[in-house]
Amino acid sequence: MNSMSWVRGFNATVGRLAPRATASRMRRAFMTPRELPPRDWELPLLAEAERVTLRFGLSALRWGSGPVVLLMHGWEGRPTQFAELIKALVGAGYAVVALDAPGHGRSPGREANVVLFARAMLEAASELPPLKAVIGHSMGGASALLATQLGLRTEALVTISAPGRILTMLRGFARYMGLPAKARAHFVRLVEEKAGMPARQIDVAQYRLEVPGLVVHAVDDPLVPFTEAEAIHQAWFDSHLLRLERGGHQRVLGDPQLIEATLRLLERAARPVVAAPLTA
């Protein structure tokens, strides 16, 4: 029996005897990110970055100059995972500011959640010039969508490998960890209490998305199913869905098609809207 099978078996047994205690333990595990070091290929870009500290101790890396593009990594992620995209954006004349999410990197906190990610983006935006674009990967993409509903302003928005329905992801995690039904229900409620927002509200189907957007997702993503990208695209009238056959959950970040589509979106956002002439 492998370790994951043992964990699921343990949760299934103990979860029936003490559902709330088991759910509480899973809630802490779910909201406590591990610190994973950068890979070797991230180090050159990290060495070129300027470290900046924003309000409330929020940490970020900055490259380039020009209109500002704000990046938010995913759960247990890092700014430099966007390395290829950052180099392309800087080369195209943009300034890139990439956040360490709460509980990640040098930003404060031990626990985190999608609401904290979103509020961090709002805090960062309040200290930056008007944003040309916001780009988020995985939970960073979900938080970017949520942040627009909380008041974040940007000319364009890109989500990569992002879930659009948080309740679906919570239930999926709880099932994967082997929690029985009552413990699963406790788990969702405990996450909602900690985040300070009902999970049903963090659903792209309820959002009002009024900026041009790009939704990028690989079909072979093992963590967030491609159906999440379809749900985001369906709810977002002014979005383009870029379907990649391969790229998994992380490798997609360096895909040339993603970079090309992102630069195209930003170029489109820069064009003035020309009204059609009136006809008699």
From TrEMBL:
<keyword id="KW-0378">Hydrolase</keyword>
<protein>
    <submittedName>
        <fullName>Alpha/beta fold hydrolase</fullName>
    </submittedName>
</protein>
<dbReference type="InterPro" id="IPR000073">
    <property type="entry name" value="AB_hydrolase_1"/>
</dbReference>
<dbReference type="Pfam" id="PF12146">
    <property type="entry name" value="Hydrolase_4"/>
</dbReference>
<dbReference type="InterPro" id="IPR050228">
    <property type="entry name" value="Carboxylesterase_BioH"/>
</dbReference>
<dbReference type="InterPro" id="IPR029058">
    <property type="entry name" value="AB_hydrolase_fold"/>
</dbReference>
<dbReference type="GO" id="GO:0016787">
    <property type="term" value="F:hydrolase activity"/>
</dbReference>
<dbReference type="InterPro" id="IPR022742">
    <property type="entry name" value="Hydrolase_4"/>
</dbReference>
<feature type="domain" description="Serine aminopeptidase S33">
    <location>
        <begin position="68"/>
        <end position="166"/>
    </location>
</feature>
